[in-house]
Write a structure and sequence with these properties.
single chain; alpha/beta; Rossmann fold; 6-stranded parallel beta sheet; 3-stranded mixed beta sheet; 13 strands; binds NADP nicotinamide-adenine-dinucleotide phosphate
């Protein structure tokens, strides 16, 4: 697909990975960070599209308000960014003949299943974040069933994510700045996914002319505790203990799904499959994406 590719949310985990991949492949890629374009402003989005010299061939929407707990309090913002913006971007793409790719989440599911969720399984988000993301999907589909919507889960890459937070906490404990034991929930299950792999997978789906809804995540299943243990073991913190706790021990503003495992068979049938999450975590840990010291945030 020759021509201009446009990435929104280009400084997020996925946005960065997509932009780097596209530019590395010699594509002309316009990368719009939050500062460059607030997708929550309909006027700003319209003006940005009007200002383009030529219509883009593909628009990849990696912008999202991903602070799950803050989405409960800041519901208007969540709705503008996660629900309204995808529909507007889809309409503008439809009017200009551009392909549109939107990214969504495992949080659209209720999270009480025991088998991996397929694209056909009933949705039922339990959080404000999940509800806003589901509405975004529906608004995209209402414009065109041909647009690509990719749901992923438990993302980590360059930015704010669980492994980064954990490595920061481990660094604090190693330096004896904090003595408290690490505590991580062991009754929520999902597929940790590396933003780099997701970017490659999304571009491969586009290459395969996939349209409609697809699940895409690294393979294998882990609990947060298992992911935490693996991250620490692989980064020289094997001696640091992590206490296993239950969801009920760790109250948060937004409920978290117990079961977040996405069935990625539909993408695999097109030959698009991501590696095992452990290999992906290893790749992340040796990349420049993983922090080397204390970090500030928790997901
Ligand atoms: N993170 C996960 O675990 C996870 C799991 C499943 C699916 N997903 C989905 O995957 C996609 C990519 O997620 P990610 O992990 O890359 O998220 P991320 O790292 O939080 O990146 C999102 C980007 O969107 C930007 N953004 C927020 N509000 C915006 C606005 N109004 N206008 C323009 N940009 C805005 C953010 O900028 P600021 O930081 O400056 O606000 C950030 O750069 C999202 O659709 C997300 O819902 C994520």
């Amino acid at each position: 697909m020759n021509g201009t590719w446009l990435v929104t949310g280009s400084r997020g985990q996925l946005g960065r990975a997509l932009t780097e991949r596209l530019r590395g492949a010699g594509r002309h890629c316009l990368a719009f960070s939050h500062e460059d374009l607030d997708v929550g402003s309909e006027d700003a989005v319209q003006a940005a599209f009007d200002a383009l010299e030529a219509p883009p061939v593909v628009v990849l929407n990696a912008a999202a308000f991903t602070h799950v707990d803050r989405c409960e309090e800041e519901s208007e913002r969540a709705w503008a960014v996660n629900a309204v913006a995808p529909g507007l971007l889809a309409r503008l793409c439809s009017e200009r003949g551009a392909r549109f790719v939107h990214v969504s989440t495992d949080y659209v599911f209720p999270g009480d299943a025991r088998e991996p969720y397929t694209e056909e399984d009933p949705v039922g988000p339990a959080s404000g974040y999940g509800r806003s993301k589901l509405e975004g999907e529906e608004r995209v589909r209402a414009v065109s069933q041909d647009f690509l919507v990719v749901r992923s889960s438990w993302l980590f890459g360059q930015g704010r994510n669980f492994p980064a937070t954990l490595l920061g906490l481990a660094a604090e404990r190693r330096s004896a700045a904090v003595k408290q034991a690490l505590r991580v929930v062991d009754d929520q299950w999902g597929r940790p996914s590396y933003a780099e792999d997701l970017a490659v997978g999304i571009l491969a789906l586009l290459e395969a002319d996939a349209r409609g809804l697809y699940h895409l995540a690294n393979t294998g299943v882990a609990s947060w505790w298992e992911l935490a243990r693996f991250c620490l073991d692989e980064s020289g913190y094997g001696d640091l203990e992590i206490e296993r706790i239950q969801t009920a021990d760790f109250e948060r503003p937004a409920p978290r799904p117990t079961w977040s495992v996405l069935d990625c068979g539909k993408a695999a049938a097109l030959g698009v499959e991501m590696r095992n999450w452990k290999d992906a975590v290893r790749a992340y840990l040796v990349s420049g994406d993983a922090p080397r010291g204390p970090v500030e945030f928790a997901r």
